[in-house]
Amino acid sequence: MTLVQMQSRSAHAALVHRTVDDVMEAAGPQVCDDMTVEVALAVMAGARTAHLLVCDEDGLCTGLVTQDRLAAIRDGAAYTDQVRLRDVLGDRGPVTSPVTTMAEAEHAMRYRRVGALPVVDDQGTALGVLALAR
User: Fold this and answer.
1) For residue 110, what are the CA distances in angstroms to 34, 114, 131?
2) Partners of 100 in the beta sheet?
3) Which residue of 15, 33, 55, 130 is most buried, as measured by CB atoms within 10 A?
4) Euclidean distance between CA atoms 122 and 134, whole angstroms
5) In what order do the strands lie in the sheet with 116-120?
6) Which residue(s) pair with 129 in the sheet?
7) Environment class of residue 120 by beta-carbon count within 10 Å: exposed (0-12), middle (13-18) or buried (19+)?
8) Which among 64, 123, 58, 115 is positioned nearest to 97, based on CA atoms?
9) pTM assigned to the model
10) CA dihedral sign of residues 47, 35, 56, 76
11) Is residue 93 a contact partner of residue 115, using CB atoms and an 8 Å limit?
């Protein structure tokens, strides 16, 4: 005989309707896109975080960089100490809204193969970070 674990319908319904706002982390360190990769890595080490939100000169979130990605860039053959975050971000990275359902956000993150997404408001200001559990 095989045991089957069952969830009540109300518990499942609650999970489906949870939004990003319910589970996102605080925004944490935010840096300007003109910061160099080397300085960004030092900021991450000092803040003991694996990612940084990157903002433009107007304070709008342009993306998120991870320690792993920046370390790979630093170790690359084309790296110089003049490489800035805006040079490695490219176009504005994927972001999500606080009203997005968790199901939608998780699907988008898995599809894009990203472990964390910036959560932004309607104006593009960073509110937090949504990270997949490891």
Assistant:
1) 29, 7, 11
2) none
3) 130
4) 29
5) 25-26, 126-131, 116-120
6) 25, 118
7) buried
8) 123
9) 0.78
10) negative
11) no
Please, what is the Cα angle at 109 between 25 and 74, to 5 degrees? Answer: 80
CA distances from 105 to 30, 55, 94, 117 (A): 22, 21, 11, 9
For 48-66, the three-class secondary structure string (H helix, E strand, C coil) is CCCEEEEECCCCCEEEEEE
Q: What would the two tokens of residue 25 be?
A: 């982390």
Placement of tokens 């900021």 in the chain: 43
User: DSSP of 24-89, one letter per residue?
Assistant: PEE---EEETTSBHHHHHHHHHHHT-SEEEEE-TTS-EEEEEEHHHHHHHHTSTT--TT-BHHHHH
Domains in the chain, please, with CATH?
Answer: 19-131 (3.10.580.10)
Q: What is the pLDDT along the chain (134 residues), one digit of tens a residue?
A: 334 343 444 444 555 678 898 888 887 889 999 999 999 999 999 999 989 999 999 989 999 999 999 999 999 998 999 999 998 887 667 889 999 999 999 988 889 888 888 999 999 999 999 987 65
